[in-house]
Design brief:
Elements: E1 8-11, H1 17-33, H2 45-57, E2 61-65, E3 71-78, E4 94-102, H3 111-125, E5 130-136, H4 140-148, E6 152-156, E7 164-171, E8 183-184, E9 189-191, E10 198-200
Helix pairs in contact: 1-2
């Protein structure tokens, strides 16, 4: 018999910053063991804290919480990155997904996939066409992961001052795990009908 899921999604809060920084540090350590130079420029100290706080204050960051309130994953949305996406791409047609990280202890729960599915539902509810990502150009394993989840490579951009630039997108509303959706903190608002509703944190601005 399949055990009930206990993790849920909620907006990130200021008190989550230490846990978010640890998620980032853990991801850096794990990536090094995989032979990729992604995130080799460690984000630490006040600069990293300020970036997380800005995302939280603007309503752009969420966390997945497990038993005991432990932060198991995080994701953020953000504005279009003009180093990569142009007017020809109709940037307003997409939700831009950033900073998807999952704790190693939660490996095997498909949290990354389920978070992306939730963002996909959010994009559809907002009337967008795509969920878009940009990833480290040399991390071919990550490219393959996203492609397995239905993302299609659009192109690769290589500005000299950036190491990301592998661009991909997936249709809004498309779900990889439709029968295992993340629940959302019940205090949040609900939108849509009972068959396909998604509970959304209110984004400021």
């Amino acid at each position: 018999m399949k055990s009930a899921r206990t993790e849920y999604l909620r907006p990130a809060a200021a008190e989550d910053v230490p846990a978010l920084l640890e998620l980032r540090a853990e991801a850096e350590r794990w990536l090094r063991t995989k032979g990729t130079d992604q995130w080799s420029d460690a984000e630490t100290g006040e600069r990293a804290i300020a970036k997380w706080r800005a995302s939280i204050d603007e309503g752009r960051a969420w966390v997945v919480v497990g038993e005991g309130g432990k932060v198991l994953a995080t994701v953020s949305r953000g504005p279009v990155d003009r180093d990569f996406w142009t007017d020809t791409d109709r940037p307003e047609s997409a939700l831009y997904l950033y900073k998807l990280m999952v704790a190693r202890e939660a490996s095997g729960r498909h949290l990354g996939t389920r978070v992306i599915d939730w963002m996909s539902r959010l994009a559809e509810l907002e009337g967008r066409t795509w969920v878009r990502i940009d990833t480290w150009r040399t991390n071919t394993g990550l490219h393959a992961y996203y492609e397995r989840l239905g993302f299609k490579h659009v192109r690769t951009e290589a500005p000299s001052h950036r190491r990301s630039g592998w661009l991909a997108q997936r249709p809004a509303g498309e779900l990889a795990m439709p029968h295992d959706l993340l629940s959302v903190c019940p205090a949040q608002r609900q939108y849509g009908d009972a068959a396909a509703r998604v509970e959304l944190p209110v984004q400021k601005g």
